[in-house]
Amino acid sequence: MERFARPHHRRAVYLTVSSGIALRTADLAERSVPVDAHGLQGEVGHLPAVSTAPEAVRSLTCPCGGTGHVSALAAGPALPHVAAALGVERPEEVREALSGLLRAGDPAAQRLLATVVEPVAELVRTLCCLDPRIDLIGIGGGYAEGLGEPYRAELVRRVSEVRSYADRDPDRAAGLLRLCRPGEVDPMAGALALSRGALTVTKR
Ligand SMILES: [Zn+2]
Known about the structure:
Elements: E1 11-17, E2 21-27, E3 32-34, H1 55-58, H2 70-74, H3 79-85, H4 94-103, H5 107-130, E4 134-140, H6 142-147, H7 149-159, H8 172-176, E5 177-179, H9 187-196, E6 200-202
Parallel strand pairs: 1-4, 3-6, 4-5
Antiparallel strand pairs: 1-2
């Protein structure tokens, strides 16, 4: 994430959308990653998903045992289950087929993409609402990176929706969100920064 940060950025978030979903926020001014007393921060994958999908989607089981969690709808392993709940044909093949179907403009594929992106977009909206210092959000992880531009475009579209007086700058989402390309974010770089003291983990 360091390579994407600019001097005026106050906080940067890295949200991984992969086999699970979680995020970490770094305070760039303090050069710190704040965590709670248990060393945790940003375990958002097991929050209830905000979704307008049918009940069959919203009641999907999460690997943690819960129901309707963000990971149950929006993580990579959830895709065939969401597809089946939406009545997509051959849901077990959808992971391999989805990119091609989206390029072809398939309406069922676009609905599926919108369904799996929605809980992530709602997380982003909540993050930005609660912490106005977030100036950069990197989206990574094999699932989101693999879908690439269609994923980014749907996420930006959702986050840019004007719903109330608080959404004064709908164009901000495009500048705020960055979909990482495979290999663009190196987790080892963060580990090295921590080991060198260039970045610290701060507990309360
Ligand atoms: Zn869960």
